[in-house]
Known about the structure:
The protein is of the alpha/beta class. It folds into three domains: 4-187, Class I glutamine amidotransferase (GATase) domain (Rossmann fold); 195-379, HUPs (Rossmann fold, 3-Layer(aba) Sandwich), CATH 3.40.50; 398-493, 2-Layer Sandwich (GMP Synthetase, Chain A, domain 3). It is built from 14 helices and 20 strands. The chain has helices at 15-24, 80-88, 176-187, 195-210, 223-236, 254-264, 275-282, 288-307, 322-327, 345-349, 362-371, 376-379, 399-418, 471-484; strands at 4-9, 28-33, 44-49, 75-78, 92-95, 102-106, 123-127, 131-135, 140-144, 153-156, 161-164, 214-219, 240-246, 269-273, 313-317, 352-354, 427-441, 444-457, 465-466, 488-493. The strands form five sheets. A seven-stranded mixed beta sheet has the order 2-1-3-4-11-10-9. The protein has a five-stranded parallel beta sheet with strand order 14-13-12-15-16, with helices on both faces. Strands 17, 18, 19 and 20 form a four-stranded mixed beta sheet that branches. It is globular, with a radius of gyration of 26 Å. The two termini are 47 Å apart. The chain binds xanthosine-5'-monophosphate. Xanthosine-5'-monophosphate binds at residues 292, 383, 385-387, 427, 461, 498, 502-504.
Amino acid sequence: xxxxxxxxxxxxxxxxxxxxxxxxxxxxxxxxxxxxxxxxxxxxxxxxxxxxxxxxxxxxxxxxxxxxxxxxxxxxxxxxxxxxxxxxxxxxxxxxxxxxxxxxxxxxxxxxxxxxxxxxxxxxxxxxxxxxxxxxxxxxxxxxxxxxxxxxxxxxxxxxxxxxxxxxxxxxxxxxxxxxxxxxxxxxxxxxxxxxxxxxxxxxxxxxxxxxxxxxxxxxxxxxxxxxxxxxxxxxxxxxxxxxxxxxxxxxxxxxxxxxxxxxxxxxxxxxxxxxxxxxxxxxxxxxxxxxxxxxxxxxxxxxxxxxxxxxxxxxxxxxxxxxxxxxxxxxxxxxxxxxxxxxxxxxxxxxxxxxxxxxxxxxxxxxxxxxxxxxxxxxxxxxxxxxxxxxxxxxxxxxxxxxxxxxxxxxxxxxxxxxxxxxxxxxxxxxxxxxxxxxxxxxxxxxxxxxxxxxxxxxxxxxxxxxxxxxxxxxxxxxxxxxxxxxxxxxxxxxxxxxxxxxxx
Length: 506
Ligand code: XMP
């Protein structure tokens, strides 16, 4: 049985990071709401209490009973988690000195303590809470301090219980990985979470869950739906049918290229050319949200129509990943809704959902894809919005505008690849602006379209910064676009960050 660590979530922004760091150490873990500890789960080997936006002294703070956890499993409280453990045992937590936000240095380290094995004096740690523990309960022993915080780390005598005031999961905490790894040692972790073990157990599970049932899946060309398809294909082979729709808003030659990749992977894929239908539906529509709705609804219509041609389908496969699941897991409302990338389809078609990637982070999806032998170009593909070039043509959409944008985008993206810059940016693309400007070509005055280049760096698309691409590269691309793409005589580079801007312009 796959061992696991349970992370009880008290609402901190860094809870997801704890999970990612543990997974990087090859240990499977799950985030659950602070009061939803799984009863009778034999595979649990340890528990972590996360941080929280609250103070333990707030009336609305989360204060669950820890009787199922404490003394029963190795336990590590982080920030609020550490304060809460102290507080419920009779300790005192008070508003701290504001200087203890951010970087601090760990000293007076108890070198014999198993949690702090191998940690050097003066290592940098990251603090981010307004409160500190000012009085510890009797059997709580301080194992490290910082200049301003006496109880920076403690152990409860006679128990496998620890608390750290700082955040070992954030990258600014230099010995963070070592501390989490030490905790895993305390838990006796076998470290059996690898892409290979995930594939083996998932394929087995899918086989028994699906039996001889038929599954359909919508492919987008992106990494999540592609890895999902290859996994399902391993489990049920010909009973999986994939549908890949050309909505006329894909990148240049993307439809043919991706279809070819999929066929090489042995997938049973129906490529549906629905360009004309989408162009018809979108004709004259300028408002961004209306365009999004039309494209989404159009997709559902095409998908439904095509899937009706396949008999006896009972399941819809979907590439939902863990961040989507966590996002819909509300610790206050306590409901776990499933997150529908393909909005509304399962209900409309009366299908059950199968989501084999719902426990994986994006980087894990990529590792699984590699282990499944998928080509690097598919695995490293930049994210691309569902409505495609539809949200990058500002204003109404025509086939001619799509042609212009596809040509300009192709030059930009190919250029990034040729200059080995593609993997340095999170995503890139060109935006066709509803602006004409005057130019001169040869002896002729021109009055043509302006396009904007957009390239950003990011780790999760929640925040993003504009990519500092080399001037020589931008000069070359701008030249090439203006010379080769009929209808464009001006190129600008977008230097906005998110927030306050967004990645897409619409
Ligand atoms: P924004 O523009 O909100 O985008 O900064 C964040 C990420 O989401 C992508 N994006 C979309 N993806 N449907 C999608 O499937 C959409 O309507 C949509 N809008 C934005 C965007 O490309 C970026 O990766």
